[in-house]
């Protein structure tokens, strides 16, 4: 038996035993929070738990990731849920410039010094993340083009969605209407560029389904990053199909049960932090040499999502099917980008979107997983820059200095 096969057997046994204990169940649900499933080979830990805890604290203290903030605002969804957004305005200085627009020769090479047209780029994040997951893209664009970053309902700084408390399940359609509320509040006029990762891309599709006139009249370009237009119920997460089908049959009930035991599960998830970190790394990234601070940043984003929020959102993805809404984007430049090793929304789903939008630019990033915008930010930034240059939102690339 190969080392990898032996590891899979051990992982499967560990996962099966884990479902009988709240601690391991918490960690397994943490995987779902990453958009994955149980059954991954667990790395052997050779460093003491106390030292690992100190290392995590050191990374949290030193890492600047997620610290960027903009001018805050609040949009109100159609069910009364308050949605937090932040706006980064265009750098208005001329000449050589100062502040965000003049920071870093890399950004100047990519984007020039300021945006010449009043375009607003709206970023929508994925499941169990927050607007901070766009950290590197926000840093690159800051001061150069107007951007809006928002937290999906029940995520980040937004209010807990009111629907579940009133017996209304979360739906991707609702998320599309939420995005419309954010646009109405933060960017009521002018051309738009919509950028969405995973659930954020699905949110953009739902917006197109809900308000095709907005897409037709105001959207100048779109970028779908690691997302899917449907058939998520067929994703295997890199596991044997039989095992995945078995998990799917019991998952809704397990999530409902654990969602009602929030404190117990969260305590278990914290107690199994090392297992949780290993699972997050497996399902978030495709390369082995991910910056430890970036990996820890991804953990922090996912850790911040309460288990009952995980449970509320999970069923919406198996029902998601917005392939019929995609033709609304046929008239604009489209970027479709995915990691070649994405186990959550496989690159084949991006290829399916490209078949419906044949004029789109399809980019499959080698050695990249689901969180491609954190794992390979330069690639994502360059492709976004190209898209924005194509529509005149930023000037042509300046000479290298």
Automatic annotation (TrEMBL):
Annotated ranges, domain AB hydrolase-1: 120-377
Superkingdom per UniProt: Bacteria
Family annotation (InterPro entries): AB_hydrolase (IPR050471), AB_hydrolase_1 (IPR000073), AB_hydrolase_fold (IPR029058)
Any one GO molecular function term: hydrolase activity
Signal peptide coordinates: none
Keywords: Hydrolase, Membrane, Transmembrane, Transmembrane helix
UniProt cross-references to Pfam families, sorted A to Z: Abhydrolase_1
Ranges annotated as spanning the membrane: 22-42
Residue ranges of coiled coil: none
Name of this protein: Alpha/beta fold hydrolase
Source species taxonomy: Bacteria, Bacillati, Actinomycetota, Actinomycetes, Kitasatosporales
